[in-house]
Design goal:
The chain has 68 residues and is mainly alpha-helical. Helices cover 78% and strands 0% of the residues. The chain has two helices and no strands. Helix 1 runs antiparallel to helix 2.
Length: 68
Amino acid sequence: MAQTESEFLSELENFVSAQLTIMEKARQIAADEKQTDAEIRYESRLSAYEFLRGKFDNFHAGKKFSDL
C-alpha cells in the first residue's frame, strides 16, 4: 500500500522529534562523563535534527522550505 505524502511527513516528523530527544540525552551523558569526542558527535547530530525541526515548523506555518 502506497504511503501518502501527509503520512510520510508525519512519520518523518515523529522520527526527527524522537532523534532530538535521544541526541539531547546522549549529549548530556557524554558531557557528564567528559567524553569530548562523543559530545562533539552528538552535538553535530543534534544540530542537524534541530535544523530539520525548523523546517517542519516552517511547513506547519505555511512557509517555504528555504525560509529561515
